[in-house]
Design a protein that fits this description.
The protein contains two helices and 15 strands. It starts with a helix and ends with a strand.
Length: 223
């Protein structure tokens, strides 16, 4: 998927979030005092994310650089507040990427497509928990499962296996409280993710330096 396609989808999703927020707010925004964040709060979010991998890595034997396409997808996330200042956030989404090797000794090589399931758990710090506009920063861990490898491939490529991998995550974002129960969220994560790749049962090995940015917008409900 091209960057322009991802940008269009993210723009449409953000517009939907803003419109939904306005409908949820209604006259309540002028009436409700800010509730803020409290220990024990559980927050469920639904929105859309853009996953934007870096383009780098290494390929043995034929050289070149592995690349994975940008994509956009729906996302669910769950946040639990241990204290007003500290929360744990878990995201759940799955994305499909076209993968290839650019600039190898045999030219550009199409490796087909792969699906990624990248659950990411972050510990977040909220410096202004009682503010309607509440920013946060965080760090955490990611484990990405790759599955569904397939699609068109450049001969002689017949099999591609992207290995599951652990990674680290940095996180920043902002919450906006519309009512005591409803809010909107903008979130950015940087994953440090570099899975190994085996082509044709290991005849060619590679490492994909994906290190993706994950940019999201969501509507959230607090229980």
């Amino acid at each position: 998927m091209k960057v322009t396609d991802v940008t269009k989808r993210m723009g449409a999703a953000l517009a939907a979030v803003v419109m939904g927020s306005a409908l949820l707010a209604g006259p309540a925004l002028a009436q409700d005092a800010v509730r803020g964040k409290r220990a024990g709060d559980m927050v469920l979010g639904f929105g859309v994310i853009g996953v934007l991998p870096e383009k780098g890595g290494r390929v043995d034997a034929i050289g070149g650089k592995p690349q994975a396409s940008d994509t956009a997808t729906p996302q669910l996330d769950f946040t639990y507040f241990a204290t007003p200042h500290l929360s744990l956030n878990l995201i759940a989404a799955t994305t499909r990427h076209d993968v290839e090797v650019r600039g190898s000794a045999i030219g550009d090589v199409d490796l087909g497509r792969v699906w990624a399931l990248p659950p990411t758990l972050t510990l977040q710090f909220h410096p202004l928990p009682q503010s309607r506009l509440s920013p946060y920063v965080g760090a955490g861990i990611n484990y990405t499962v790759f599955y569904g490898e397939g699609g068109g491939r450049t001969p002689p490529v017949s099999k591609v296996d992207v290995k599951n991998a652990w990674g680290w995550a940095l996180n920043a974002g902002v919450d906006y409280e519309i009512t005591p129960n409803w809010g909107v969220n903008l979130d950015v994560k940087k994953l440090f993710l570099r899975p190994d790749v085996a082509v044709n049962s290991g005849a060619i090995s590679a490492r994909a330096d994906l290190d993706p940015w994950i940019v999201g917008a969501s509507v959230r409900y607090r229980f």
